[in-house]
Amino acid sequence: IAGNVITGCTYDASTSGSFYGIWNSGDPMLLHIRGNLFHNNSTSTSSGSTYLLYNNGDPLLTTVRENTLAFRFNGSVQYSGTMYGIYNSSAAAGATVDLSRNVFRDIAHVNQNGTGNIYLLNNSAPCTQLTADSNMVHDLVLMHQANVYCVFSGASTTSLLAIRSNTITNISRSSSAFDFFGVYAASASSSSATHVITGNFVGNLAEVAGGPGDFAGIYDVAGNTSPFPQKVVSHNTVMNIQSLAIGNFHGLYVTDLGHGT
Fold it and tell me: How far apart are CA 75 and CA 47, in angstroms?
């Protein structure tokens, strides 16, 4: 699924309903979603989730690379749905997943607050290896009262979790801020796995309206059961975070450190 342009699509006639840009539900051996462009698309609904790139099939190899995603919520009432930029929710046993070199930009709430969580890049499929490298998140204007996850790993990996050289920058939140995570990894994780979270940049974030939320630039609590996976967390940068929220600040928050088996 490559080289498609989805532009000028407005979902304005209904007050509810989900928006799906590209959705695969099949089970090919190899799934490649690459080089697609989303531009000038929006919804005015108050509910129903948004999925720009979505896979819930079971490939053995999934690559979602070099896509550019933008979207606007411009309804006259609050939007309560969950927003997913890239969402990989399923994979075959022993699968490899690569979610790299994607661009998320110009995602904004225009008129009313959003109250559903935002996941820009989300892998929730257990797999052997997950790679999320060199993704770019920039220029987001979030009038938004829920949690934001930029790079999210919510499922176990048995060999390698690699989140490297991602850039998250120029983000403003003008409503009461809830939790914000630059890089987030939380699940049971095999002691045979290695986590490599290196070279990521999280910076230039402004939360100007206060709120109860926490901030974490890098957050890796995957493991849960001893023996824990080996983790390499190095050469990451968290800088220029301006927040009026009253929650906790974590530049890097890492638990369940181990040496593998």
Answer: 10
H or E segment and range at residue 171: strand 167-173
Contacts of 13 (CB under 8 A, 6+ apart): none
Contact indicator for 127, 155 with CB cutoff of 8 Å? yes
Nearest by Cα to 214 from 185, 168, 253: 253
Q: Contact, 89 vs 54, CB < 8 A?
A: yes
Q: Would you state the structure tokens that stand for residue 203, as one six-digit string? A: 């910076």
Query: Per-residue pLDDT tens for 7-33?
Result: 999 877 667 788 999 999 999 999 999
pLDDT category of residue 109 using cuts at 50, 70 and 90: confident
* Distance (Å, whole) CA 43 – CA 241: 30
Return d(Cα 16, Cα 49) in angstroms, integer: 9
Nearby residues of 77 by Cβ (< 8 Å), 6 or more positions away: 15, 46, 112
> What is the torsional sign of CA 98, 134, 70, 142?
positive
Query: Do 107 and 71 form a contact (C-beta atoms < 8 A)?
Result: yes
Q: Round to whole Å and give the CA distance between 143 and 110.
A: 7
Token pair in block for residue 236? 């990451």
Residue 86: what residue type?
I
